[in-house]
TrEMBL record, chain A:
It catalyses: a fatty acyl-[ACP] + S-adenosyl-L-methionine = an N-acyl-L-homoserine lactone + S-methyl-5'-thioadenosine + holo-[ACP] + H(+). GO terms for biological process: quorum sensing; signal transduction. One of its GO terms (molecular function) is N-acyl homoserine lactone synthase activity. SUPFAM superfamilies: Acyl-CoA N-acyltransferases (Nat) (SSF55729). Pfam families: Autoind_synth. Belongs to the autoinducer synthase family. Its EC number is 2.3.1.184. It comes from the Bacteria. This is Acyl-homoserine-lactone synthase. Keywords: Autoinducer synthesis, Quorum sensing, S-adenosyl-L-methionine, Transferase.
Length: 208, 250
Protein backbone atom coordinates (compact mmCIF):
# COMPACT_ATOMS: atom_id res chain seq x y z
CA UNK A 1 0.00 0.00 0.00
CA UNK A 2 1.19 3.50 -0.83
CA UNK A 3 1.06 6.36 1.66
CA UNK A 4 1.75 9.96 0.64
CA UNK A 5 2.81 12.32 3.41
CA UNK A 6 2.93 16.05 2.82
CA UNK A 7 2.56 19.28 4.76
CA UNK A 8 -1.21 18.86 5.08
CA UNK A 9 -1.29 15.42 6.60
CA UNK A 10 2.11 14.96 8.24
CA UNK A 11 0.65 15.43 11.74
CA UNK A 12 -1.47 12.33 11.11
CA UNK A 13 1.61 10.27 10.31
CA UNK A 14 4.16 11.14 13.02
CA UNK A 15 4.68 7.43 13.80
CA UNK A 16 5.36 6.58 10.18
CA UNK A 17 7.74 9.52 9.79
CA UNK A 18 9.59 8.42 12.92
CA UNK A 19 9.84 4.89 11.54
CA UNK A 20 11.16 6.28 8.24
CA UNK A 21 13.80 8.45 9.92
CA UNK A 22 14.97 5.42 11.92
CA UNK A 23 15.21 3.29 8.81
CA UNK A 24 17.12 6.03 7.02
CA UNK A 25 19.59 6.11 9.90
CA UNK A 26 20.05 2.34 9.73
CA UNK A 27 20.45 2.26 5.96
CA UNK A 28 22.26 5.43 4.97
CA UNK A 29 24.44 5.96 8.03
CA UNK A 30 24.99 2.53 9.55
CA UNK A 31 24.92 0.45 6.38
CA UNK A 32 26.24 2.83 3.72
CA UNK A 33 28.39 4.94 6.02
CA UNK A 34 27.16 8.23 4.59
CA UNK A 35 28.17 11.36 6.46
CA UNK A 36 24.73 12.78 7.28
CA UNK A 37 23.27 14.78 10.16
CA UNK A 38 21.84 12.49 12.83
CA UNK A 39 21.20 12.15 16.54
CA UNK A 40 22.33 8.54 16.82
CA UNK A 41 18.83 7.21 16.17
CA UNK A 42 17.18 9.28 13.45
CA UNK A 43 18.52 10.63 10.16
CA UNK A 44 16.91 14.00 9.50
CA UNK A 45 18.50 16.70 7.38
CA UNK A 46 17.81 20.29 6.38
CA UNK A 47 15.55 19.20 3.51
CA UNK A 48 13.07 17.37 5.74
CA UNK A 49 10.90 20.46 5.89
CA UNK A 50 7.19 21.06 5.44
CA UNK A 51 7.88 21.30 1.70
CA UNK A 52 9.05 17.71 1.50
CA UNK A 53 6.69 15.02 0.22
CA UNK A 54 7.26 11.41 1.23
CA UNK A 55 6.04 8.42 -0.73
CA UNK A 56 6.05 5.23 1.32
CA UNK A 57 5.30 1.65 0.41
CA UNK A 58 4.02 -0.08 3.55
CA UNK A 59 2.81 -3.56 4.40
CA UNK A 60 -0.50 -4.44 6.07
CA UNK A 61 0.96 -3.74 9.53
CA UNK A 62 2.16 -0.28 8.41
CA UNK A 63 5.78 -1.33 8.36
CA UNK A 64 7.62 0.76 5.80
CA UNK A 65 9.16 -1.44 3.11
CA UNK A 66 10.31 1.23 0.69
CA UNK A 67 10.43 4.99 0.84
CA UNK A 68 11.52 8.15 -0.93
CA UNK A 69 11.47 11.91 -0.51
CA UNK A 70 10.54 14.59 -3.02
CA UNK A 71 11.70 18.18 -2.59
CA UNK A 72 10.74 21.21 -4.68
CA UNK A 73 13.59 22.48 -6.83
CA UNK A 74 12.45 26.08 -6.50
CA UNK A 75 13.81 26.01 -2.96
CA UNK A 76 17.17 24.87 -1.53
CA UNK A 77 17.67 21.21 -2.36
CA UNK A 78 20.50 18.70 -2.31
CA UNK A 79 21.48 18.78 -5.99
CA UNK A 80 21.68 22.56 -6.15
CA UNK A 81 23.39 22.96 -2.80
CA UNK A 82 25.95 20.15 -2.88
CA UNK A 83 26.07 18.41 -6.26
CA UNK A 84 25.67 21.21 -8.79
CA UNK A 85 29.03 20.21 -10.32
CA UNK A 86 27.40 17.00 -11.54
CA UNK A 87 25.04 18.97 -13.78
CA UNK A 88 27.04 20.10 -16.81
CA UNK A 89 24.34 22.40 -18.13
CA UNK A 90 23.04 23.72 -14.86
CA UNK A 91 20.79 22.23 -12.20
CA UNK A 92 17.28 21.72 -13.58
CA UNK A 93 14.85 23.71 -11.50
CA UNK A 94 11.25 24.82 -11.88
CA UNK A 95 7.75 24.42 -10.52
CA UNK A 96 7.28 21.19 -12.47
CA UNK A 97 10.55 19.62 -11.33
CA UNK A 98 11.08 17.91 -7.98
CA UNK A 99 14.14 16.21 -6.59
CA UNK A 100 14.14 12.59 -5.45
CA UNK A 101 16.35 11.76 -2.49
CA UNK A 102 16.62 9.09 0.21
CA UNK A 103 15.14 6.37 -2.01
CA UNK A 104 15.56 3.05 -0.26
CA UNK A 105 13.94 -0.32 -0.27
CA UNK A 106 14.12 -3.08 2.27
CA UNK A 107 13.34 -5.52 -0.55
CA UNK A 108 16.94 -5.18 -1.63
CA UNK A 109 18.25 -6.75 1.51
CA UNK A 110 16.39 -10.00 1.15
CA UNK A 111 18.59 -12.93 0.38
CA UNK A 112 16.01 -14.85 -1.57
CA UNK A 113 14.44 -14.55 -4.98
CA UNK A 114 11.09 -13.10 -3.92
CA UNK A 115 9.82 -10.44 -6.30
CA UNK A 116 10.63 -6.92 -5.20
CA UNK A 117 6.99 -6.08 -4.65
CA UNK A 118 7.45 -2.98 -2.53
CA UNK A 119 10.24 -1.58 -4.69
CA UNK A 120 8.12 -2.02 -7.80
CA UNK A 121 5.14 -0.44 -6.10
CA UNK A 122 7.18 2.59 -5.07
CA UNK A 123 8.76 2.93 -8.53
CA UNK A 124 5.32 3.08 -10.14
CA UNK A 125 3.80 5.25 -7.41
CA UNK A 126 6.54 7.82 -7.86
CA UNK A 127 5.59 8.34 -11.52
CA UNK A 128 1.89 8.18 -10.75
CA UNK A 129 2.30 10.92 -8.16
CA UNK A 130 4.44 13.00 -10.54
CA UNK A 131 1.84 12.72 -13.29
CA UNK A 132 -0.98 13.59 -10.91
CA UNK A 133 0.89 16.71 -9.81
CA UNK A 134 1.73 17.80 -13.35
CA UNK A 135 5.47 17.32 -12.86
CA UNK A 136 7.67 16.96 -15.93
CA UNK A 137 10.94 15.77 -14.38
CA UNK A 138 12.29 14.24 -11.22
CA UNK A 139 15.97 14.88 -10.62
CA UNK A 140 18.20 12.53 -8.72
CA UNK A 141 21.79 11.66 -7.84
CA UNK A 142 22.62 8.00 -7.72
CA UNK A 143 25.31 5.39 -7.86
CA UNK A 144 25.71 4.18 -11.43
CA UNK A 145 25.19 0.60 -10.34
CA UNK A 146 21.46 1.27 -10.01
CA UNK A 147 21.05 2.85 -13.46
CA UNK A 148 20.72 -0.49 -15.32
CA UNK A 149 17.89 -1.41 -12.94
CA UNK A 150 16.22 1.97 -13.47
CA UNK A 151 16.36 1.53 -17.24
CA UNK A 152 15.18 -2.04 -17.03
CA UNK A 153 12.19 -1.05 -14.94
CA UNK A 154 11.11 1.36 -17.67
CA UNK A 155 12.23 4.79 -16.53
CA UNK A 156 13.17 7.33 -19.20
CA UNK A 157 16.40 8.82 -17.86
CA UNK A 158 18.39 11.80 -19.07
CA UNK A 159 21.91 12.07 -17.62
CA UNK A 160 22.73 15.60 -16.51
CA UNK A 161 26.49 15.16 -16.65
CA UNK A 162 29.22 12.56 -16.74
CA UNK A 163 29.61 10.29 -13.73
CA UNK A 164 32.34 11.02 -11.21
CA UNK A 165 34.28 8.67 -9.00
CA UNK A 166 33.71 9.40 -5.31
CA UNK A 167 35.07 7.12 -2.61
CA UNK A 168 35.27 4.19 -5.03
CA UNK A 169 31.68 4.75 -6.18
CA UNK A 170 30.60 6.17 -9.51
CA UNK A 171 27.80 8.68 -9.00
CA UNK A 172 25.82 10.69 -11.50
CA UNK A 173 23.04 13.27 -11.67
CA UNK A 174 20.11 12.48 -13.92
CA UNK A 175 16.54 13.41 -14.59
CA UNK A 176 13.65 10.99 -14.74
CA UNK A 177 11.36 12.22 -17.51
CA UNK A 178 7.77 12.00 -16.37
CA UNK A 179 5.66 10.61 -19.20
CA UNK A 180 2.55 8.52 -19.37
CA UNK A 181 4.37 6.04 -21.62
CA UNK A 182 7.11 5.37 -19.08
CA UNK A 183 4.51 5.13 -16.30
CA UNK A 184 2.73 2.39 -18.25
CA UNK A 185 6.04 0.64 -18.91
CA UNK A 186 7.07 0.80 -15.26
CA UNK A 187 3.67 -0.61 -14.22
CA UNK A 188 3.93 -3.45 -16.72
CA UNK A 189 7.48 -4.30 -15.72
CA UNK A 190 6.56 -4.35 -12.03
CA UNK A 191 3.26 -6.22 -12.31
CA UNK A 192 1.24 -3.19 -11.23
CA UNK A 193 -2.26 -3.42 -12.67
CA UNK A 194 -3.94 -0.26 -11.42
CA UNK A 195 -3.54 3.10 -9.69
CA UNK A 196 -1.61 3.01 -6.44
CA UNK A 197 -2.13 6.41 -4.91
CA UNK A 198 -4.64 6.77 -2.10
CA UNK A 199 -7.84 8.60 -2.96
CA UNK A 200 -7.03 12.17 -2.03
CA UNK A 201 -8.90 14.35 0.36
CA UNK A 202 -9.63 17.80 -1.02
CA UNK A 203 -6.40 19.72 -1.41
CA UNK A 204 -4.40 17.02 0.25
CA UNK A 205 -1.78 16.31 -2.38
CA UNK A 206 -1.37 19.62 -4.06
CA UNK A 207 0.07 21.95 -1.50
CA UNK A 208 3.80 21.27 -2.00
CA UNK B 1 34.03 24.31 -10.69
CA UNK B 2 35.06 25.22 -14.23
CA UNK B 3 33.68 22.93 -16.87
CA UNK B 4 36.36 22.04 -19.42
CA UNK B 5 35.32 22.04 -23.05
CA UNK B 6 36.65 18.49 -23.43
CA UNK B 7 34.52 17.27 -20.57
CA UNK B 8 31.46 18.83 -22.11
CA UNK B 9 32.37 17.36 -25.49
CA UNK B 10 32.58 13.84 -24.01
CA UNK B 11 29.25 14.34 -22.29
CA UNK B 12 27.64 15.57 -25.52
CA UNK B 13 28.95 12.50 -27.29
CA UNK B 14 27.52 10.17 -24.64
CA UNK B 15 24.21 12.06 -24.58
CA UNK B 16 23.96 11.84 -28.34
CA UNK B 17 24.48 8.06 -28.24
CA UNK B 18 21.87 7.73 -25.48
CA UNK B 19 19.35 9.74 -27.50
CA UNK B 20 20.02 7.60 -30.59
CA UNK B 21 19.47 4.41 -28.58
CA UNK B 22 15.78 5.30 -28.35
CA UNK B 23 15.29 4.92 -32.10
CA UNK B 24 17.64 2.02 -32.86
CA UNK B 25 15.75 -0.97 -34.24
CA UNK B 26 18.36 -3.67 -34.79
CA UNK B 27 21.51 -5.08 -33.22
CA UNK B 28 23.50 -4.21 -36.35
CA UNK B 29 22.38 -0.59 -36.09
CA UNK B 30 23.28 -0.56 -32.41
CA UNK B 31 26.77 -1.92 -33.15
CA UNK B 32 27.34 0.69 -35.85
CA UNK B 33 26.06 3.53 -33.66
CA UNK B 34 28.12 2.59 -30.62
CA UNK B 35 31.18 2.10 -32.81
CA UNK B 36 30.73 5.56 -34.30
CA UNK B 37 30.56 7.16 -30.86
CA UNK B 38 33.53 5.34 -29.34
CA UNK B 39 35.53 6.22 -32.48
CA UNK B 40 34.93 9.87 -31.67
CA UNK B 41 36.49 9.18 -28.28
CA UNK B 42 39.57 7.55 -29.83
CA UNK B 43 38.60 3.87 -29.67
CA UNK B 44 38.37 1.41 -32.53
CA UNK B 45 36.83 -1.89 -31.40
CA UNK B 46 34.42 -3.23 -28.80
CA UNK B 47 32.62 -6.31 -27.55
CA UNK B 48 29.50 -6.50 -25.39
CA UNK B 49 29.12 -9.91 -23.82
CA UNK B 50 26.85 -11.53 -21.27
CA UNK B 51 28.57 -13.77 -18.77
CA UNK B 52 27.36 -17.26 -19.65
CA UNK B 53 28.50 -20.70 -18.75
CA UNK B 54 30.03 -22.54 -21.67
CA UNK B 55 26.99 -24.58 -22.62
CA UNK B 56 24.20 -22.32 -21.36
CA UNK B 57 22.95 -19.61 -23.72
CA UNK B 58 19.85 -17.97 -22.24
CA UNK B 59 17.56 -16.13 -24.61
CA UNK B 60 18.31 -12.71 -23.14
CA UNK B 61 22.06 -13.17 -23.35
CA UNK B 62 23.79 -10.60 -25.51
CA UNK B 63 26.76 -10.75 -27.84
CA UNK B 64 27.68 -7.70 -29.86
CA UNK B 65 31.04 -7.04 -31.43
CA UNK B 66 32.99 -4.85 -33.74
CA UNK B 67 36.27 -6.67 -33.38
CA UNK B 68 39.06 -7.99 -35.61
CA UNK B 69 37.70 -11.28 -36.94
CA UNK B 70 41.17 -12.86 -37.11
CA UNK B 71 41.48 -12.37 -33.35
CA UNK B 72 38.04 -13.83 -32.67
CA UNK B 73 38.95 -16.82 -34.83
CA UNK B 74 42.24 -17.30 -33.00
CA UNK B 75 40.57 -16.81 -29.59
CA UNK B 76 38.04 -19.52 -30.41
CA UNK B 77 40.57 -21.94 -31.85
CA UNK B 78 42.79 -21.64 -28.79
CA UNK B 79 39.88 -21.84 -26.31
CA UNK B 80 41.17 -18.67 -24.63
CA UNK B 81 37.89 -17.83 -22.89
CA UNK B 82 38.64 -19.89 -19.82
CA UNK B 83 42.01 -18.16 -19.41
CA UNK B 84 40.83 -14.65 -20.25
CA UNK B 85 42.36 -12.25 -17.72
CA UNK B 86 39.93 -9.44 -18.49
CA UNK B 87 36.89 -11.65 -17.95
CA UNK B 88 38.19 -12.95 -14.63
CA UNK B 89 38.90 -9.42 -13.36
CA UNK B 90 35.52 -8.15 -14.60
CA UNK B 91 33.68 -10.81 -12.65
CA UNK B 92 34.94 -9.24 -9.43
CA UNK B 93 34.52 -5.56 -10.26
CA UNK B 94 31.56 -3.21 -10.35
CA UNK B 95 33.35 -0.13 -11.68
CA UNK B 96 35.19 0.19 -15.02
CA UNK B 97 38.89 -0.54 -15.24
CA UNK B 98 41.69 0.01 -17.72
CA UNK B 99 43.55 -3.00 -19.04
CA UNK B 100 46.73 -1.27 -17.91
CA UNK B 101 45.44 -1.09 -14.33
CA UNK B 102 47.60 -3.01 -11.82
CA UNK B 103 44.55 -5.11 -10.95
CA UNK B 104 44.83 -6.57 -14.45
CA UNK B 105 48.57 -6.55 -15.04
CA UNK B 106 49.73 -7.98 -11.71
CA UNK B 107 49.51 -11.69 -11.11
CA UNK B 108 48.95 -12.79 -14.70
CA UNK B 109 49.89 -16.33 -15.64
CA UNK B 110 52.34 -16.96 -18.46
CA UNK B 111 49.47 -17.96 -20.72
CA UNK B 112 47.54 -14.80 -19.88
CA UNK B 113 50.58 -12.70 -20.74
CA UNK B 114 50.91 -14.63 -23.98
CA UNK B 115 47.24 -13.96 -24.82
CA UNK B 116 47.78 -10.26 -24.19
CA UNK B 117 50.86 -10.28 -26.42
CA UNK B 118 49.05 -12.08 -29.22
CA UNK B 119 46.11 -9.68 -28.95
CA UNK B 120 48.47 -6.71 -29.26
CA UNK B 121 49.83 -8.17 -32.48
CA UNK B 122 46.33 -7.98 -33.99
CA UNK B 123 45.88 -4.38 -32.92
CA UNK B 124 44.11 -5.00 -29.61
CA UNK B 125 46.48 -3.00 -27.46
CA UNK B 126 44.82 -0.97 -24.73
CA UNK B 127 41.29 -1.13 -23.47
CA UNK B 128 38.67 -0.25 -20.92
CA UNK B 129 36.24 -2.81 -19.52
CA UNK B 130 32.87 -1.85 -18.08
CA UNK B 131 31.03 -4.49 -16.01
CA UNK B 132 27.23 -4.07 -16.04
CA UNK B 133 24.86 -5.66 -13.55
CA UNK B 134 21.07 -5.45 -13.30
CA UNK B 135 18.51 -7.47 -11.36
CA UNK B 136 17.29 -10.32 -13.53
CA UNK B 137 19.82 -9.63 -16.28
CA UNK B 138 22.83 -11.77 -16.96
CA UNK B 139 25.87 -9.72 -15.92
CA UNK B 140 27.85 -8.41 -18.85
CA UNK B 141 31.16 -6.89 -19.78
CA UNK B 142 31.74 -4.25 -22.40
CA UNK B 143 35.34 -4.17 -23.66
CA UNK B 144 36.35 -1.04 -25.56
CA UNK B 145 39.69 -1.10 -27.33
CA UNK B 146 41.93 1.68 -28.54
CA UNK B 147 45.53 2.55 -29.30
CA UNK B 148 46.11 4.86 -26.34
CA UNK B 149 47.42 3.71 -23.00
CA UNK B 150 46.43 6.69 -20.89
CA UNK B 151 42.69 7.21 -21.09
CA UNK B 152 41.32 10.49 -19.76
CA UNK B 153 39.20 9.64 -16.69
CA UNK B 154 36.35 11.67 -18.17
CA UNK B 155 36.50 9.60 -21.36
CA UNK B 156 36.30 6.50 -19.19
CA UNK B 157 33.25 7.94 -17.44
CA UNK B 158 31.64 8.65 -20.81
CA UNK B 159 32.33 5.07 -21.89
CA UNK B 160 30.83 3.82 -18.63
CA UNK B 161 27.64 5.75 -19.20
CA UNK B 162 27.34 4.75 -22.85
CA UNK B 163 28.03 1.10 -22.04
CA UNK B 164 25.09 0.96 -19.63
CA UNK B 165 22.76 2.19 -22.38
CA UNK B 166 24.40 -0.08 -24.94
CA UNK B 167 23.64 -3.13 -22.85
CA UNK B 168 20.14 -2.03 -21.92
CA UNK B 169 19.32 -1.37 -25.58
CA UNK B 170 20.90 -4.67 -26.64
CA UNK B 171 18.78 -6.62 -24.14
CA UNK B 172 15.60 -4.84 -25.22
CA UNK B 173 16.37 -5.52 -28.90
CA UNK B 174 17.07 -9.15 -28.04
CA UNK B 175 13.55 -9.43 -26.60
CA UNK B 176 12.12 -8.11 -29.86
CA UNK B 177 14.26 -10.42 -31.96
CA UNK B 178 11.52 -12.70 -33.27
CA UNK B 179 9.80 -9.66 -34.79
CA UNK B 180 12.78 -7.60 -35.88
CA UNK B 181 14.97 -10.32 -37.29
CA UNK B 182 12.48 -12.15 -39.47
CA UNK B 183 14.33 -10.80 -42.47
CA UNK B 184 17.63 -12.27 -41.32
CA UNK B 185 19.42 -13.64 -44.37
CA UNK B 186 21.17 -16.47 -42.54
CA UNK B 187 18.86 -18.57 -40.38
CA UNK B 188 20.34 -21.46 -38.44
CA UNK B 189 18.14 -24.21 -37.11
CA UNK B 190 18.24 -24.96 -33.40
CA UNK B 191 20.21 -28.14 -34.10
CA UNK B 192 22.70 -26.32 -36.30
CA UNK B 193 23.15 -23.63 -33.69
CA UNK B 194 23.61 -26.22 -30.95
CA UNK B 195 26.21 -28.12 -32.98
CA UNK B 196 28.05 -24.91 -33.76
CA UNK B 197 27.95 -23.93 -30.10
CA UNK B 198 29.77 -27.13 -29.22
CA UNK B 199 32.24 -26.58 -32.07
CA UNK B 200 32.93 -23.19 -30.53
CA UNK B 201 33.69 -24.96 -27.27
CA UNK B 202 36.36 -26.95 -29.11
CA UNK B 203 34.47 -30.26 -29.14
CA UNK B 204 35.04 -32.80 -31.90
CA UNK B 205 32.15 -34.18 -33.93
CA UNK B 206 32.32 -37.50 -32.11
CA UNK B 207 32.10 -35.78 -28.72
CA UNK B 208 29.27 -33.54 -29.93
CA UNK B 209 27.43 -36.64 -31.13
CA UNK B 210 27.64 -38.09 -27.62
CA UNK B 211 26.63 -34.83 -25.97
CA UNK B 212 23.61 -34.40 -28.22
CA UNK B 213 22.78 -38.07 -28.35
CA UNK B 214 22.77 -38.14 -32.15
CA UNK B 215 25.01 -39.81 -34.70
CA UNK B 216 28.34 -38.36 -35.73
CA UNK B 217 27.19 -38.19 -39.34
CA UNK B 218 24.20 -36.09 -38.26
CA UNK B 219 26.51 -33.73 -36.41
CA UNK B 220 28.69 -33.51 -39.51
CA UNK B 221 25.58 -32.81 -41.61
CA UNK B 222 24.51 -29.92 -39.34
CA UNK B 223 27.98 -28.40 -39.19
CA UNK B 224 28.41 -28.62 -42.94
CA UNK B 225 25.02 -26.96 -43.35
CA UNK B 226 26.17 -23.98 -41.29
CA UNK B 227 29.31 -23.67 -43.43
CA UNK B 228 27.19 -23.79 -46.56
CA UNK B 229 24.73 -21.21 -45.25
CA UNK B 230 27.51 -18.79 -44.37
CA UNK B 231 29.49 -19.60 -47.49
CA UNK B 232 32.67 -20.30 -45.56
CA UNK B 233 35.30 -23.00 -45.86
CA UNK B 234 36.00 -23.95 -42.26
CA UNK B 235 34.08 -24.72 -39.08
CA UNK B 236 35.86 -21.96 -37.21
CA UNK B 237 34.85 -19.42 -39.86
CA UNK B 238 31.24 -20.55 -39.44
CA UNK B 239 31.57 -20.05 -35.69
CA UNK B 240 32.97 -16.56 -36.19
CA UNK B 241 30.17 -15.64 -38.58
CA UNK B 242 27.52 -16.97 -36.20
CA UNK B 243 29.17 -15.10 -33.35
CA UNK B 244 29.17 -11.82 -35.27
CA UNK B 245 25.57 -12.48 -36.25
CA UNK B 246 24.63 -12.72 -32.57
CA UNK B 247 23.46 -16.30 -33.03
CA UNK B 248 26.15 -17.79 -30.89
CA UNK B 249 27.65 -17.10 -27.48
CA UNK B 250 31.22 -17.90 -26.69
Amino acid sequence: MIVIINRLNRDDYTDLLDQMYRQRYDIFIKRFGWDLPNDGVLEIDEYDTDDAVYILSVDDEMNIKASMRLCPTMKPHLMADKFAHLCFKGVPTGPSIMEVTRFYSLDHYKRDDLPQHFTGELRAAMLEYALSEGLTQLTCIANLTIIPNMLKTGYDLTPLGLPILKKNECIMAYAINVTHASYIEVCENNDIDGPLLPVSKPGERTAA
Amino acid sequence: MMMTSKKLEYFENASSFIAECKTISSSAELVATFHKHISELGFCHFTCTSFCSDSDTPHNAVRLAEYPSEWIEHYIQQSYKKHDRILSVARNRIIPFSWDDPVVMHGMTDLQEQIFQEARETGIIHGVTVPVYADGFIPATINIVGPNRDVDPDVQHALHLMSIYLYDTAVKLRKQEPETLTDRVIELTDRERECLQWVAEGKSESVIAELMNISQSTVHFHVENTKRKYGVATRVQAVVRAFLDNQLLL
